[in-house]
Design goal:
By secondary structure, the chain is of the alpha/beta class. Helices cover 32% and strands 20% of the residues. A six-stranded mixed β-sheet has the order 3-8-7-4-5-6. Strands 2-1-9-10-11 form a five-stranded parallel β-sheet, sandwiched between helices.
Length: 254
Amino acid sequence: MASNVKKILVSQPQPTSEKSPYYDIADKYGVQIDFRPFIKVEPVNAKEFRTQKVNILAYTAVIFTAKTAIDHFFLLSEELRIQIPETMKYFCVTEAIAVYLQKYIVYRKRKIFFPASGKMEDLMTPIVKHNKETFLIPVSDVHKEDLLHLLDEKKISYTKAVMYRTVSNDFKGEETFDYDVLLFFSPSGISSLLKNFPDFEQKKVAIGTFGPTTAKAARDAGLRLDIEAPSPELPSMTAALENYLKSLPKSGKK
């Protein structure tokens, strides 16, 4: 068993599959792994949305970068009592996001577009081909600008509309917070840690991050990074976590 690590907190929802690598790691290294998202998504209500002065029916195409965006687009449309026309076109970053549209619409390939590669840059090909459309992009209040920069480069006219927000998932007073390792997957997670525990002192607590923006947020907050992913050698957080546990001195036997 890893000598200094007994409890690990993964700031994501608990895996739905029993075959998650996290469970294998828990068994292999004799550690307890808890799952507790530091952030949660809340919808923007109709009253708040109206202040943005965005008329959904004025657009002929929607660009989706996440399944969450799809949920909130259609839920908000329903709250606004807007019937989305069958002529609406949908541009999705990945096939998985495109297929998720079936939850709300009849799936027709002639009006749904996505790149086979799943890369945002390649989504530009069908968008440029349909550059006469008026594009709407549902986003969170905290969102990446990568897609917007690509659209600007191609001189595509678009409007972004905040349809949901990312907020801190506050810890309750009775919840214990005695973890040896904390794993984060977004800058919002780091912000939530500091909001929930303003007097947090890292000391011997190992912190792991996934992605460069999360790593930067952690360092900017003055935190020490002990685990970083992805990398060519460690493409996933679970691979990076196991690599870290392997590097620790062992004490006793399982």
